[in-house]
Amino acid sequence: xxxxxxxxxxxxxxxxxxxxxxxxxxxxxxxxxxxxxxxxxxxxxxxxxxxxxxxxxxxxxxxxxxxxxxxxxxxxxxxxxxxxxxxxxxxxxxxxxxxxxxxxxxxxxxxxxxxxxxxxxxxxxxxxxxxxxxxxxxxxxxxxxxxxxxxxxxxxxxxxxxxxxxxxxxxxxxxxxxxxxxxxxxxxxxxxxxxxxxxxxxxxxxxxxxxxxxxxxxxxxxxxxxxxxxxxxxxxxxxxxxxxxxxxxxxxxxxxxxxxxxxxxxxxxxxxxxxxxxxxxxxxxxxxxxxxxxxxxxxxxxxxxxxxxxxxxxxxxxxxxxxxxxxxxxxxxxxxxxxxxxxxxxxxxxxxxxxxxxxxxxxxxxxxxxxxxxxxxxxxxxxxxxxxxxxxxxxxxxxxxxxxxxxxxxxxxxxxxxxxxxxxxxxxxxxxxxxxxxxxxxxxxxxxxxxxxxxxxxxxxxxxxx
Length: 466
Known about the structure:
Elements: E1 4-9, H1 15-27, E2 36-46, E3 65-75, E4 84-92, E5 99-108, E6 113-114, E7 129-134, E8 144-149, H2 160-181, H3 196-216, H4 224-248, E9 257-262, H5 268-275, E10 280-284, E11 299-302, E12 315-321, H6 329-337, E13 342-346, H7 365-374, H8 377-391, E14 395-401, E15 410-417, H9 424-435, H10 446-465
Parallel strand pairs: 9-10, 9-12, 10-11, 12-13
Antiparallel strand pairs: 1-8, 2-3, 3-4, 4-5, 5-6, 5-7, 7-8, 13-15, 14-15
């Protein structure tokens, strides 16, 4: 059977840029195919001139291959699509300079058996092999292409959907190759604190067990899917982190509850963590309609916190998920709650310590350059909060870009101190000096805003009647 070119384009790039783009696609195929959740690399072998030195090398390995990667493709819809094993060969022809990344789906990775076209998942075209090809050219003809090798009994797909997919892929390849050649550096890095596999597996599990009920019975006017999926993702991140600590032996409770969620809002995160066996509670300035849906073990308190005097000495972790006017206070509260107290903040709205809207951007010029490079005012505020937690409260700060359906998705994680336990009194004195003299005004709840608005309307009507 002959190769069939299904898409091609031109990109003024060199061989190194092509291979750099392929490396990214090999590690992160989800960038190219939205139905793929991730790739798990099971082997990555450099091939020498002597093929016989490579154990279990497939017989169809091209003689000019210099690298062999075997990976598992994990689908987004694990209930519908199966995991697919795949070989990728990096191939270079020394005479022509042609480079091709050869993708071969497998039926069984243990035996190296090639795939059956009837067993391929939805996201994989029914072809025996896919090749992404680069050909060095001095003219202006296309030098990037996608080629397909059909199965003996199955023709090359040529429907409009397949054409659209391959056209999009070749333009993605062009974009990535040009980007790497021009020195593009990825700005957002995920999975720095918690491994992606651990998080995604737990997220899928929690989503399958908790999401449907909450989405179908959501009592508020807000978008249920956004809130439910976001809180499930945050719960998956926290539980994955806590399990890591348990494995490392750094999770002694000392008789304390696991967490307090400060500004717990709809209470769903408290519910999820409690349902998964973690002891804790949530506090918010106002009760929400969703509170009546939480499990019997979820403790939610409606109360106003005065952060100038509040401490949480009964918990290991202080959670601030979009804590609004309490954002900058959480590191201060944690520092005063005990040397071993840990925290996570996911900032949203920008507030001063006073509770007013944040206006002191000009006082933090050192973080502004970093923010401009990283992406705007939100990044600037995250940098300010991170620096405050580190410099004022002596926490070692880790930042994680969470995989949640929100643009306000940075988690500031503090689970270690920068000072020894013997120096904690001095740090607390420094913190108290910051707190002293701050006049804090809690925000007005939506319920109170509505009451005041109705009261003004009634007063206006009364004035008009007179």
